[in-house]
Amino acid sequence: MSISGISLPGMQLAALVIMVSSVVVHVALALAIFRDSEKLHSETAEMPQFVGPVVWGLAVLISGVVGATAYWVIHYSNLRADKN
């Protein structure tokens, strides 16, 4: 069976590649955010904004790029409240 000239097994393979890529991106972002928030905690002796490193890591693991963007806006952008 084919849809638009692409066979069903080919579509399944493409879907699998997209899902695996998404999981890899989510895990990589979560690890990076977790490590960065731990670094912020150790350098400043304060918790990252709102929650600790574990919660930030889990939030980014679940939300992906959206959570990583929120972390960046809160901790590094010019929009953050306390500009040291």
Structural class: mainly alpha
Helix content: over 70%
Question: How confident overall, as mean pLDDT?
Answer: 84
Q: How are strands sequenced across the largest beta sheet?
A: 1-2
Domain unit count: 1
Low-pLDDT sequence parts = none
Roughly how many Å apart are the termini?
A: 61 Å
Global outline: elongated
Percent of residues in β-strands: under 5%
Cα-atom radius of gyration = 18 Å
Q: What is the N-to-C order of secondary-structure elements (H for helix, E for strand)?
A: EEHHH
Distinct helical segment count:
3
What does the main sheet amount to? Answer: 2 strands, antiparallel
Number of strands: 2
Protein name: Cardiolipin synthase N-terminal domain-containing protein
Organism: Biformimicrobium ophioploci
Keywords: Membrane, Transmembrane, Transmembrane helix
Transmembrane segments: 12-34, 54-74
Describe, in plain words, how this protein is organized in 3D:
With 84 residues, this protein is mainly α. The chain has one domain. It has 3 helices and 2 strands. Strands 1-2 form a two-stranded antiparallel sheet. Strand 1 (2-3) and strand 2 form a beta hairpin. Helix 1 runs antiparallel to helix 2 (53-63) and helix 2 packs across helix 3 (65-75). The radius of gyration is 18 Å and the shape is elongated. The chain starts with a strand and ends in a 9-residue tail after the last helix.
Topology:
Elements (H helix, E strand, L loop, with lengths): L1 E2 L2 E2 H37 L8 H11 L1 H11 L9
Antiparallel strand pairs: 1-2
Helix pairs in contact: 1-2, 2-3
